[in-house]
Amino acid sequence: MTKSLISSFPTERFILGIETSCDDSSISILNNKYQDVITITQAHLECLQPYQGIMPEVASREHCRYVPLLLSQIEKKIPLKMIDAIAITAGPGLAGSLLTGHACARTLHALLDIPLIPIHHLEGHLCAIFIEDPSPIVWPALGLLVSGGHTQLIEMEKPFSYKIIGQTRDDAAGEAFDKIAKSIGLPYPGGPALSKLAANSTYSELFSIPLINDKTTLDFSFSGLKTQATRSPLKDELPMEDYCAMVENTIVEALYEKCSLALQSLPETKTIIVSGGVASNPSLRKKMLKLAQKHQCILRIPSPKYCTDNGTMIAAAANFQIEHNGPALTRLMGTYPQWILGLEPTNIR
Ligand code: KG4
Ligand code: ZN
């Protein structure tokens, strides 16, 4: 196990970030100032379109096809001998998808004889904030992670201290967007498509929101909304734009209300970090800005291209670990599909 990450690296360094946890193959090079030197991302949209959702086996095969291609494109711009470390998403995610990136990272680690840094996918999403603004986080911070697989509220007192204080009990926010979008015939992934339609509407009605009035929990629930929205007569009665706005407003309101409740119980919070694919939603961004202003907090949200899965954020998380002499988890040489943020991925399947 590497004792000190800092002493292993030159001050000026390049980190190769590899992200293959779900349905985007992405490889990047980031420097020690968190500057994105190069990022190439290939979404598996075309292959997943017929299924209107993620098919794990198809995603794994697509990673097998794209990872070597992306790597050779990267190498044409920056020779791999310039790289000082490899950052790889070790979990959570789809087992086959994680393994593809892992095999590539392990091979490079052996060939180039440079450190391999395993990264938690959600720590990557949180560290995406540094890519365009490397200023340090003012602690303590509250994180809202909203993606296709996760919806979590995270209390962060200091670097690498992650306490999950609320999470979805069923579907993730992105999953709710995608499933409802699918039910009205929008192309995969439905979240951005639904949000684009909603942008043309000023309709402000909401569906009812599970758990919203329960002030004893910071948990979310979105599976009931999916049932409610897809079975509602409003689906046929309202113009499509208004129906989409109603869905979007409801999801955004659910996220806003639980963040607001979390801030009431954590009045010392100085920074709110919002990240994950759903954080690219314009309504959510606006609403979170209002919330931050109300609580006099700094709001940090990556720009939309760094909210969705990318290799840059994985390299950024490795750079953050190096900068703060962080977890140094080089003993974690496996893949961990169910790794929980803040816990060591031991004894989990
Ligand atoms: O973080 P991400 O790229 O992958 C996962 O780790 O899951 O998030 C993907 C999710 C999808 O559910 C997608 O529909 C959603 O983020 N998403 C959006 C928007 N852009 C992406 N949801 C709502 N509005 C958007 N603009
Ligand atoms: Zn993600």
- Beta-strand content: 15-25%
CATH top level label of the largest domain: Alpha Beta
- Structural class based on helices, strands and sheet pairing: alpha/beta
What separation lies between the terminal Cα atoms?
A: 22 Å
Number of domains: 2
The share of residues in helices is 40-55%
Count every helix, treating DSSP H or I runs of 4 or more residues as helices. Answer: 12
Give me the CATH fold name of the largest domain.
Nucleotidyltransferase, domain 5
Q: Write the CATH homologous superfamily of the largest domain.
A: ATPase, nucleotide binding domain
Strand order of the largest sheet: 3-2-1-4-5
The ligands bound in this entry are: 5'-O-[(R)-(carboxyoxy)(hydroxy)phosphoryl]adenosine, zinc ion
Based on CA atoms alone, the radius of gyration comes out at: 20 Å
- The low-pLDDT segments are none
Q: What's the architecture of the largest domain in CATH terms?
A: 2-Layer Sandwich
Order of helices and strands: EEEHHEHEHEEEHHHHHEHEHH
Summarize model confidence as the mean pLDDT.
93
Q: Tell me about the biggest sheet?
A: 5 strands, mixed
Q: Report the count of strand segments.
A: 10
Shape: globular
Report what the structure shows.
This protein has helices spanning 45-48, 56-77, 95-112, 121-127, 173-183, 190-198, 223-231, 234-237, 240-265, 282-294, 304-307, 311-323; strands at 14-19, 24-31, 36-43, 85-91, 116-120, 141-146, 151-156, 163-167, 271-275, 298-300. The chain has 349 residues and is α/β, with parallel strands linked by helices. It folds into two domains: 3-128 and 308-330, 2-Layer Sandwich (Nucleotidyltransferase, domain 5), CATH 3.30.420; 134-301, 2-Layer Sandwich (Nucleotidyltransferase, domain 5), CATH 3.30.420.40. The two termini are 22 Å apart. The model has no long low-confidence stretch (mean pLDDT 93). It binds 5'-O-[(R)-(carboxyoxy)(hydroxy)phosphoryl]adenosine and zinc ion. 5'-O-[(R)-(carboxyoxy)(hydroxy)phosphoryl]adenosine binds at residues 22, 147-149, 174, 177-178, 189-192, 195, 276-278, 280-281, 308-309.
